Amino acid sequence: MDCGGAGRLTAQSDVTIGAAGRIGTNSAAAVGAGRTRARRDVPLAWLLAFLILASVAPLVLIGAYTIMRWADVEHAAEVGRVSEVAHTLAQAVDRELRSHSETAEVLAASRALVKANFQAFDEQARALSARGGHVVLVDRALRPLVDTRDEPDRPAEVRANPVEQVFASGRMKVGNAGPMTGEPNRFAIYVPVSVEREVRSVLMLMPPPATIQNVLKQTYRPEGWSAAIIDGEGRVIARSLPERGEGDTRVGRAASPGLLAPRTESEGVLTVSDLDGQQAVAAYRRSGLNDWHAVVWVPKAVLEAPSNQRRNAVLALLGLTTLVSIGAAFFGAHLINRSTRRTVNAARALGEGAPISLKPTLIREDNLVCRAMADAAQIIAAREDALHESARQMGFVMRELSHRSKNLLTVVQSMARQTGRHTSDAAEFQARFEDRISSLARSHDLLVARNWTGATIAELVERQLMPFLDAANDRVSLDGPTLLLRPDAAQNIGMALHELATNASKHGALSVPSGCIRVAWRVEEAAPEPRLHMSWEETDGPPVTPPERRGFGHVVIERMVSMALRGSARLDWKPDGVAWTLDVPLAAVCEHMDQPIAAAAA
């Protein structure tokens, strides 16, 4: 691709544009300084690698923080699972105990006990004992009245404490029955037997020894999890360990100190040491029927193993992604370096004025650089022309500003001279002159707001009447089409409107609350050219009489405006109010006559 067709540039190291927009060359010292700086440059591959690392580093940090938070959430979720399993186990134990307690209550309500027919009740109790349970009925002296055990002749070693509690409270209780049966994990359901609202005996229902152990076996637990049921005395009713099957020799004995901690709380999570001395997470839940606790514990290594595996996989993936990104950066830098060297050679050839022929590369941007260097010469030339045009426009604006300023100063000079001619007092001159300068300034503000393109008649009237009326006043009505006045016409008509408004506020319609003003204008199609007819009419004001002396305001209203706009003006002193009419060629006040005239609402 040949890039020399757009123009030749002389050999140079740094290109500068002077005040006149000319392109020049720097000295040899600048070239040497540029080469000195180039020796301290770093390869593009390093910059890309740094860019990749700078881009990846926040992601790595965010990823690490996310992984840590994720691990915390996973740990909390696993701890929640332990609590859920403990809750499920406690509910299962409650269902089992409730089933046996209902059986015991049915037996306690037997009619045989009401009639003290212990032989008949013994038959009923033995029918239940056939399913593996035992029933013992004792009185207040702890004497067995009914005993369905296999050795009925053996003295009943009834524990006094739970029986006495049932006699005292009249409520069911689940307690230890190991001393009576010789089985450490045996428990009994103590139910009061009431006859005529008096607790006369206590019925003890002893389910089979493996009842709670079977509940542990049937309740789901993930692999590696342990569970135990502890009664209110801290004794292990049942326990299941992964390495010991569904039972061990610890059953019936006091639980370890770590598992005895939750005896005073209904539920919770704590950290304990397992049989191997490892840290474990334990969750406990109190039974809803008694003071038993279901405890589930898991070694931390087992509990955290799934989340650790996922975390390690994510970290490995993150590290692999970083390595791949860095490798891609170096590979991309190699391609860019090769293309950049070709572009540098092309730039040197362009600087020497030699033609350039560059083969396309894999990078589109480098292929466009050569064409961009050729286009740059055209852009610089275009900018130079634009600077000359801008300077020309600035000169025109300055000349126009000087012309308008001279016109404005001429108007101010004439205004001062005429005001001084018609006033004899310095204070009166100052007041009138300041009012007229303010009126002229309001017209100029309106023109400046429209970028000096002109002003509409409605805007001009509203702006000139602004010092004499508040914004919400409806005493002035406007009626006419939308016409854009030329700046000089707006200035002259604005002066006349100011003088009319000043007279109305002092002597006319605006001097009394009932007075009104109607400003109307229209375009009349007449030969040889259209004309603008504008009128100012005051009504409901004080009686009007022609003034004895005519001042500068009358000169402005009757002569200056009409002469400046090549028309005629007339001021009538009617009894019901002042009337002023202006008739001028439309071309003298409106510059853009090719636009349609829009009617304005009154």
From TrEMBL:
Gene3D superfamilies: Histidine kinase-like ATPase, C-terminal domain. Residues 400-482 form the Signal transduction histidine kinase HWE region domain. One of its GO terms (molecular function) is protein histidine kinase activity. It is an enzyme of class 2 (transferase). This is histidine kinase. Keywords: ATP-binding, Kinase, Membrane, Nucleotide-binding, Phosphoprotein, Transferase, Transmembrane, Transmembrane helix. Pfam families: HWE_HK. SMART domains: HWE_HK. Its EC number is 2.7.13.3. It catalyses: ATP + protein L-histidine = ADP + protein N-phospho-L-histidine. The chain crosses the membrane at residues 44-67, 313-336. PANTHER family: HISTIDINE KINASE, TWO-COMPONENT SYSTEM SENSOR PROTEIN.
